[in-house]
Specification:
The chain has ten helices and ten strands. The chain is of the alpha/beta class. The protein has one domain: Vaccinia Virus protein VP39 (Rossmann fold). The strands form two sheets. An eight-stranded mixed β-sheet has the order 5-4-1-6-7-9-8-10, sandwiched between helices. 44% of the residues are buried.
Length: 280
């Protein structure tokens, strides 16, 4: 797991989907004047320089956030996400991209608490530097699922949990399901948002079926594929599985994804899915 560095992939099409969904959930939570907690189990570095060697080596951001940058037709529901990226690039030139913790911080301000866990020593140091002196942010070097369960249920009784594993180990799909199942036992009303890659369609199908059979209700699946399914290597899309999604989220993504899929498409077989794995 520790060989994974998100800096190679920051700002790609998967990040666009993940951070759009994250932003919409946070925006929904902020509609009520009650505090909530944000948990991030695989936090990464906080922010990423798209001009550094790692980002330039893959150039993945050019097929993601770069396609949205500077456009004047961004749908209104994407604006909180775009505002967050723009806040890191006041000159108007796209250079820095926020990781999920920074997306959360930019949207949540100082009113709500943020709990971050990260194991990679380099990313952990960068994360600590990013949030140095911020009393509303706690950063722990710990397995994300262990840290999460230690903090549940939160005193605020409202929380968003973002789980974004690297999926480098064969066990990580099962680990993610087990982690959410255990957390849901402790705190059944929390919002759990799990990111997953689309590499093998058969694997995604098995993953979703297993998730749906855990005895948890109210599970929404959102997926955006920029290419048609293949039997080869490489990610053709990504998705989010959300337990207890805000009530407007499904319709918001149904409205947004036709436009976003067309913008991010890399071949004629690009597609999206919004469906309930398990209804409430």
């Amino acid at each position: 797991m520790l060989s994974y560095r998100h800096s190679f992939h920051a700002g790609n099409f998967a990040d666009v989907l993940k951070h759009t969904v994250q932003s919409l959930i946070i925006d929904a939570l902020q509609q009520k004047p009650k505090p909530f907690v944000y948990f991030d189990t695989h936090s990464g570095a906080g922010r990423y320089d798209l001009n550094d060697d790692k980002s330039e080596k893959t150039g993945e951001y050019k097929e993601g956030i770069s396609r949205l940058w500077g456009r004047d037709d961004i749908p209104e529901i994407m604006q909180p996400y775009i505002d967050t990226v723009e806040s890191l690039n006041p000159s108007g030139d796209l250079r820095y991209y926020p990781g999920s913790p920074l997306v959360a911080k930019k949207m949540m301000g100082n009113y709500n608490r943020i709990e971050l866990t990260e194991l990679h020593p380099t990313d952990l140091t960068l994360l600590q530097q990013e949030f140095a002196g911020d009393r509303k942010v706690r950063i722990t070097k710990l397995d994300g699922y262990k840290g999460l369960n230690a903090g549940l249920p939160p005193a605020q009784r409202r929380a968003l949990v973002l789980i974004d594993p690297p999926y480098e180990l064969k066990s990580e799909h099962n680990d993610a399901i087990a982690g959410i199942k255990e957390s849901h036992k402790r705190f059944s009303t929390g919002i759990y948002a799990l990111w997953y890659p689309v590499v093998s369609r058969a694997q995604v199908t098995r993953f979703c079926e297993k998730f749906a059979n855990q005895g948890i209700r109210n599970i929404l699946r959102i997926e955006l594929c920029v290419k048609g399914d293949t039997d080869g290597f490489g990610m053709t899309g990504s998705g989010m599985i959300i337990v207890n999604p805000p009530w407007k989220l499904a319709q918001q993504m149904k409205d947004l994804l036709p436009w976003l899929t067309k913008l991010l498409a890399q071949d004629s077989q690009a597609k999206f899915t919004v469906e309930w794995l398990v209804e409430e």
